[in-house]
Design goal:
Elements (H helix, E strand, L loop, with lengths): L26 H10 L6 E3 L31 E12 L2 E8 L4 E5 L4 H11 L19 E10 L7 H4 L2 E9 L4 E6 L5 E3 L2 H10 L10 E2 L1 H8 L4 H11 L2 H42 L5 H147 L1 H57 L9 H13 L11 H4 E3 L5 H8 L6 E3 L2 H14 L9 E3 L22 H4 E3 L2 H11 L4 E4 L2 H10 L8 E4 L4 E2 L4 E2 L12 H190 L10 H22 L3 H63 L2 E8 L4 E8 L10 H14 L6 E5 L7 H17 L4 E6 L12 E5 L12 E2 L5 H4 L1
Helix pairs in contact: 7-19, 8-17, 8-18, 9-17, 10-13, 17-19, 19-20, 20-21
GO biological process, one term: double-strand break repair via homologous recombination
GO molecular function: ATP binding; damaged DNA binding; single-stranded DNA binding
InterPro entries: P-loop_NTPase (IPR027417)
Length: 1101
């Protein structure tokens, strides 16, 4: 028999529950327990059952060529290879439709019902509410259905007759008559018996009437809309065949009741017959010779029956001995399978431990690699900046050199022109200038005074602008300090707001979630609220050391992290800065850092300067920042002296000064902040800000007085300038006539002289600039050379750490792949072990049935000996068969009857006496047999009911395990609860984390999860679902489809056929997925083949 049980799951490893036993051992208790139900219920939730192995993700693989049947493996038996119909439900010819061994989607607007009906009828099921004659296409005489089943592998059915495929042909006449043919792989007829088809379906565990194997559209609608817990429990009993077991127990009880009633009636009849015999014995003591002969024949018949029963018992004992030898063989196979399973499991555990160790090493290397990368980037950035400055200075020098050459040529040319014209112009100009010298002296004195006044005004304006800018700057600082002062006063009433206005509400939400049991361990944070600075002078230094960790939260595991992230999203808008969440297992004991802590007689470490009450916080700071190796100093000069001049202290990684500067062994970083933000003493910070606000207000008052004085000076100077300008205008009017005569000559001379002086000044300025640029080039070349070697060393260190981290990561990935493969081997070995256990149990049960039959036969043999000894105490050696003796007795009886009819003597009464006696013995034997049968029925009833309870308990526990694993893999929470006493089954499903809400179709989605759960406890080589997803909303349908794909991908040795009107273009490309689009009816009379194709159907058309 095929053993295709869907047991490819990892077993629960924690929180195991003791298996309950039925209450009561007596017959009355057994019957009461059976009818009243088991008086306990077991609930297994997501918290106490380990999840299953995660299935491998889909891989994008190119689709197979068209018109090619899917590839099959040698281990798949009973799955559907193809379906082909002719003249069936509106189709002249449909197919053959080739199904893949894994996931098959049948889509289209119509025709899916025809394909599903053909599958059910072709496998011996009933049509979906339609008479068989109506399935024949209009105008045709008959319809033909051909279903091909895979028959290759160890569990193949009569492979010597059928080969690798079994073809089932069904013919439906227009009058509703049907006939069946079973053909082999080559198409040759093997059998036309319906019993052969039933044997094939039983062998492959195919039950088309079971909704877990084939789920039609109407039945799927009813199942997905189940709300009654009793109906859901009845469905569980039906699909797992527990209902059949319970009905068998009820039939045994009814048969037992009938036997007891028959025994009571038999006893009454025995009493009546005994009284009749005693009355006859009082009158007749002897028997006729003929009656004696008849009695002898009956004695022989009795012992003949004893001999036949004895021979039957001997044959049964021989068969039992043969079966016992087979039991030993099965025990040996089971032990070998158990040893192999234990070895594979040990290898899996060893690989898992190696993965954990390497993962810890990779986790230690990653922050070092990131730090080295940041250092390399920082040094490369500084080197590139220096190179850019160097190149810029070189380009600037080249430009200045070119401009100097051009100016030199212009100066030479201008000097030559001035020498020629100066002699002639000088004579004419000297005469005219004598006339206006007196006016010029007056004008010069006025101009000088005006110039002095303008300079004074400009100076006052600059001073006024500078004071205004300083006043504005001081006002901005004052506003910021006042705002900060108000915040600090607010923080004084609620210190948690210091870490963000949302923090108090967030912490309150975390407390509520922890009280409700959402967290395994309550998250810790923010960090700044969990620590206290012993010396406020080091507050800025500690903030510089810890940086962003002061706002971070800590979680023990990733599940708590997901819940905390959801809470954070409630209080922080999208795009805003959110606190980070660090995941690390909580260690309740503080690390012992005595050997690795920095030691200095004067300077404390950060760990010593902090007061930390929670060991988890202290351990996390040690792991992330190494605070036990960081020293605190009062002044940066002390830190430089300790790290650079003297030898660094033992185990000291860096020194942080009170002003926040960080001093390393080879580098130094200044702190941008002037005051602490999160860890400073509130009173000190408030007093400091109050003093700063008072100083700024005093500065603003002084600035305002100074501005008023400057405005008065500017106004007076401008009035004086206006008076001097009026005097100048008078002087210029007097010299206009003289100036007009010499203006033309002076303009040329002045323009040329001005141009020459300007050119010479520019040439001199360019020479000075060239010297400055050359000095810059020299300094920047030295700076670039100094930065080159540290840059190369930092890049080399980063590459070394990166290479080491890459090697460790690759080794972890390879070990994880090996661990996953070993996990699959463990599951396969576990399935093999369960297979052998099941075979051994079935075999032992069968042998036990034979032994029970032997016991019954032996009891019957003993009863026959008792009866024979009662009739004839001396055993007779009989050579004739009982039927021969029956014929002789009949002949003798007829003779006696003929003689009695003739003579009418007292022999007639004697004969009546013997008949009464025989009736008494026969009835006594029947009563005895019925009593034995009643005892046997009690034993069988107890055994079957115990098996029923064990099967029900195991199946319900398996359902809960699968259900909880399914919820955990898809970020759901919920519960599957069985109540066997009241025969109810309840389901609760709630999304958690980032999963979308499913309120619109929660009932249908919950029943769909229950439907998937029932798959794990039912046996079938294939599953067929018809439009199961149209009763769900869009979100539920997407999650349900993802679940089906992942589960189907996990169990690749099971075939799944999904009929859906939805578009499957969004399915991932995978060799495991086949998509078939149904054609419309009446496409034509040509025979068309529709192979499945992978990918987007629109692309294939």
């Amino acid at each position: 028999m095929s053993k295709r049980k869907e047991e490819g799951f990892s077993q629960a490893t924690c929180h195991k529950r003791a298996r309950p036993r039925p209450e009561g051992d007596s017959d009355e208790d057994l019957e009461r327990v059976f009818f009243e139900g088991v008086s306990h219920q077991t609930v297994v939730t997501h918290d106490n059952v380990s999840s299953f192995q995660n299935a491998a993700s889909f891989q994008n693989v190119a689709p197979p060529p068209a018109n090619v049947a899917p590839q099959w493996t040698s281990e798949e038996v009973g799955v559907i290879e193809s379906i082909h119909v002719e003249n069936f439900m509106g189709y002249s010819s449909l197919g053959p439709v080739y199904f893949g061994p894994n996931i098959n989607f049948v889509v289209g607007r119509s025709g899916k019902n025809a394909l599903l009906t053909a599958l059910i009828v072709g496998l011996g099921g009933k049509s979906l509410g339609t008479p068989l004659k109506d399935l024949v296409k209009d105008g045709e005489v008959s319809a033909r259905i051909s279903v091909s089943l895979k028959n290759k592998g160890e569990d193949a059915f009569k492979p010597e007759f059928y080969g690798h495929s079994i073809i089932i042909l069904h013919y439906i006449g227009v009058d509703g008559s049907t006939s069946c043919e079973l053909r082999n792989q080559a198409g040759h007829l093997v059998s036309v018996q319906k019993e052969e088809l039933i044997a094939i379906l039983e062998h492959f565990k195919i039950r088309v009437d079971n909704p877990m194997s084939v789920l039609p559209h109407e039945m799927g609608r009813q199942l997905l809309r189940i709300r009654n817990e009793s109906d859901r429990y009845k469905l569980f009993l039906k699909v797992t065949e527990l209902e059949q077991m319970r009905e068998e127990c009820k039939k045994i009880l009814e048969r037992k009741a009938r036997n007891l009633h028959d025994i009571e009636q038999g006893q009454e009849q025995l009493d009546l017959i005994r009284r009749q015999g005693l009355e006859i014995e009082e009158h007749f003591k002897t028997m006729d010779a003929l009656e004696k002969q008849l009695e002898d024949l009956r004695h022989e018949k009795t012992w003949a029956l004893v001999n036949e029963t004895e021979r039957t018992i001997g044959n049964m004992i021989t068969n039992i001995n043969v079966e016992d030898q087979l039991t030993m063989i099965l025990n040996h196979d089971l032990e070998v399978s158990r040893v192999t399973y234990n070895e594979t499991l040990q290898r899996y555990v060893a690989i898992h431990e190696s993965v954990l160790k390497l993962s810890e090493e990779a986790a230690l290397l990653e922050p070092k690699c990131l730090e080295a990368k940041e250092d390399a980037k920082r040094r490369d950035r500084a080197y590139r900046q220096a190179m850019a400055f160097y190149n810029y200075s070189q380009n600037e020098l080249i430009k200045l050199d070119k401009v100097a050459e051009e100016l030199h040529a212009k100066i030479v040319q201008v000097k030559k022109n001035l020498e020629l014209a100066e002699l002639e112009k000088q004579k004419k100009i000297s005469v005219l200038k004598e006339k206006i010298n007196n006016f010029k002296e007056q004008e010069d004195s006025l101009v000088q005074e005006i110039k002095y006044l303008h300079q004074s005004i400009e100076k006052d304006d600059e001073e006024h602008s500078r004071i205004r800018e300083e006043e504005s700057y001081v006002q901005e600082i004052l506003n910021e300090e006042q705002q900060q002062l108000n915040h600090l006063r607010d923080y004084k009433t609620d210190p948690l707001k210091r870490f963000g206005p949302q923090i108090p509400a967030l912490l309150e939400a975390i407390d509520d979630a922890h009280k409700q049991g959402y967290f395994t361990f309550k998250p810790i944070g923010p960090l700044g609220a969990c620590i206290r600075v012993r010396d406020p002078e080091f507050a800025l230094a500690i903030e510089s050391c810890l940086k962003g960790l002061l706002l971070d939260f800590f979680c023990d595991n990733h599940k708590d992290e997901q819940i905390l992230q959801e809470l954070i999203k409630r209080f922080y808008a999208v795009g805003s800065t959110r606190p980070q969440v660090i995941v690390s297992p909580f260690a309740c004991e503080l690390y012992d850092v005595t050997e690795r802590a920095a030691s200095h007689p004067e300077f404390p470490t950060v760990l010593a300067a902090l007061e930390i009450n929670d060991a988890v916080v202290a351990n996390t700071l040690i792991d992330l920042r190494g605070i036990e190796q960081v020293l605190l100093v009062k002044s940066s000069s002390f830190g430089n002296a300790v790290m650079h001049v003297q030898a660094p202290p033992k185990n000291c990684s860096k020194i942080v000064s009170a002003c926040g500067d960080r001093v390393f062994e080879v580098r130094y970083y200044s702190c941008e902040d002037l005051r602490p933000i999160y860890l400073g003493d509130m009173e000190i910070e408030i007093n400091h800000l109050q003093k700063e606000v008072e100083n700024k207000m005093a500065q603003l008052s002084a600035f305002q007085q100074h501005v008023y004085s400057l405005q008065n000076d500017i106004r007076k100077n401008r009035d004086t300038i206006d008076t001097h300008y009026r005097h100048l205008r008078d002087i210029k009017v007097k010299v206009i006539s003289i100036t007009s005569e010499i203006r033309d000559l002076e303009d040329e001379e002045e323009n040329q002289s001005i141009d020459l002086s300007i050119l010479e000044d520019e040439a001199q300025e360019i020479k000075v600039e060239m010297k400055e640029v050359e000095e810059k080039i020299r300094l920047r070349r030295e700076e670039m050379e100094n930065l080159r070697q540290p840059k190369i060393e930092a890049e080399q260190r980063h590459e070394e750490l990166k290479l080491k981290f890459s090697k460790v990561s690759e080794l972890v990935e390879s070990l994880m792949e090996e661990r996953n493969q070993t996990g699959l081997e463990v599951n396969a070995q576990h399935q093999s072990l369960m297979h052998y256990q099941s075979r051994l149990k079935q075999h032992v049960d069968a042998v036990q049935v034979i032994k029970e039959e032997l016991v019954i036969k032996e009891r019957e043999f003993e009863r026959e000996i008792v009866e024979a000894s009662y009739i004839c105490p001396q055993r007779i050696e009989v050579t004739r068969a009982s039927d021969v003796l029956d014929r002789e007795i009949d002949m003798l009886t007829q003779r006696i009857q003929s003689e009695n009819f003739t003579h009418r003597s007292q022999e007639e009464v004697k004969l009546q006496y013997h008949e009464i006696k025989e009736r008494y013995l026969d009835l006594s034997g029947k009563v005895f047999n019925m009593k034995n049968l009643t005892e046997t029925l009690d034993e069988i009833l107890f055994q079957r009911y115990e098996n029923y309870q064990k099967s029900r308990q195991n199946l319900s526990l398996q359902c809960k395990l699968f259900f909880d694993s399914l919820l955990s893999q898809w970020s759901f929470s919920g519960e599957l609860r069985f109540n066997h006493r009241s025969e109810t089954l309840s389901i609760k499903v709630q999304p958690c984390g980032d999963m979308p809400a499913l309120a619109a179709g929660r009932q249908a989605f919950s029943n769909f999860l229950f439907f998937l759960t029932l798959w794990s406890v039912t046996e079938s080589p294939f599953r067929c679902l018809d439009t199961f997803d149209i009763y769900m909303d869009r979100k539920s349908r997407k999650v349900a489809m993802d679940m089906l794909l992942k589960i189907s991908n996990s169990y690749q040795n099971h075939q799944i056929i999904l009929l859906s009107p939805q578009n499957m273009s969004s399915l991932p490309l995978s060799p495991l997925i086949e998509v078939f689009e149904m054609p419309d009816p009446d496409l034509g009379r040509e025979k068309m083949t529709f192979p499945f194709a992978t990918g987007n159907p629109e692309e294939q058309h």
